[in-house]
């Protein structure tokens, strides 16, 4: 294996690890920061942090020629920003009503949402293997979402996390239309504009942060779990390609679920374990479909 490929694999796994801590750490921060405000700070942290990374890149390396965003990209850019405002808000509110382990594992539903929306909006073909993967991930997500199996009621928190995944599924397809443009600029726009939009909503809702230290923690988490994670993901894609990068990045929800169980000292239920195993199988078929 070439050194360049090894470095790219390292970046892909690092991106997955950095994102995996977002659910458990956000769950902890929600004890001190309201959900909409936390969503805003996470995205602002990503945007501000990568703005600094961009400035450092310009000073230390020769700038590569990247295509700028144009007026034709405006509808997709606006759609991307609006969806990136809605998705983390749904996720943070969902985290207040379900466990971090559940939320981390449910993030895999984004694969389902992205694929089905790509079929509906862009007429992309879906193979039998991917349909099977979609079915497995959907079944697993339903099992995790069940709050009371005897009364067959669904957890509101899990449903909100799934709604966040649907928003990110749309957002992934909109961002796909911008993929030929400067990736760093796209991530900075995501962070700053979506963060500012969420911040405005949080202020209108009367949400405040009483402790500035926790606000700084949230900004740092956003920079690491959203900003740096996407940054390393993009660089991994350039050498590995989208399919192989996706395979390595697919470990993120499972790492997040494991970290959450450790941090919150939770014992997984038998239903969670069954859903976890089905989710692993579904994720395998979803990622191997693209190779």
Q: Tags for this entry?
A:
single chain, 291 residues, mainly alpha, two-stranded antiparallel sheet, 13 helices, 2 strands
Describe the protein in words.
- Helix content is 77%, strand content 2%.
- With 291 residues, the protein is mostly helical.
- Helix 7 runs antiparallel to helix 13 (270-288).
- A two-stranded antiparallel ribbon has the order 1-2.
- It has 13 helices and 2 strands.
- The model has no long low-confidence stretch (mean pLDDT 86).
- It has helices at 3-20, 22-29, 35-60, 74-95, 100-106, 109-122, 128-145, 156-176, 183-204, 212-240, 242-249, 252-263, 270-288; strands at residues 146-148, 153-154.
Overall geometric form = globular
Mean pLDDT: 86
Task: Give a quick account of the main beta sheet: strands, pairing sense, barrel closure.
Answer: 2 strands, antiparallel
Give the SSE string: HHHHHHHEEHHHHHH
Arrangement of strands in the largest sheet: 1-2
SS elements, strand count: 2
Helical percent range?
over 70%
The number of helical runs is 13
Radius of gyration: 19 Å
What is the structural class? mainly alpha
């Amino acid at each position: 294996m070439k050194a360049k490929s090894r470095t790219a694999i390292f970046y892909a796994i690092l991106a997955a690890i950095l994102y995996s801590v977002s659910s458990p750490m956000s769950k902890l921060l929600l004890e001190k920061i309201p959900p909409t405000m936390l969503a805003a700070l996470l995205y602002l942290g990503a945007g501000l942090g990568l703005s600094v990374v961009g400035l450092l890149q310009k000073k230390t390396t020769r700038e590569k020629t990247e295509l700028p965003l144009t007026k034709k990209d405006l509808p997709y850019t606006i759609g991307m920003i609006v969806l990136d405002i809605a998705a983390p808000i749904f996720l943070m509110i969902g985290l207040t009503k379900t466990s971090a382990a559940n939320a981390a594992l449910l993030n895999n539903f984004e694969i389902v949402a992205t694929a089905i929306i790509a079929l509906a909006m862009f007429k992309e073909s879906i193979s039998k293997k991917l349909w099977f993967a979609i079915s497995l991930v959907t079944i697993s997500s339903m099992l995790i979402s069940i709050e009371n199996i005897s009364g067959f009621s669904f957890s509101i928190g899990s449903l909100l996390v799934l709604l966040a995944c649907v928003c990110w599924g749309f957002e992934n397809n909109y961002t796909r239309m911008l993929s030929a443009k400067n990736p760093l600029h796209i991530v900075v726009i995501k962070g700053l504009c979506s963060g500012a939009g969420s911040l405005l909503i949080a202020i209108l809702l009367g949400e405040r942060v009483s402790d500035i230290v926790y606000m700084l923690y949230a900004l740092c988490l956003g920079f690491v779990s959203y900003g740096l994670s996407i940054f390393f993901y993009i660089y991994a894609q350039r050498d590995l390609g989208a399919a192989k990068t996706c395979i390595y990045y697919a470990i993120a929800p499972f790492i997040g679920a494991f970290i959450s169980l450790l941090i919150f000292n939770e014992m997984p239920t038998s239903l969670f374990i069954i859903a976890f195993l089905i989710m692993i199988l579904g994720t395998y078929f979803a990622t191997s479909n693209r190779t």
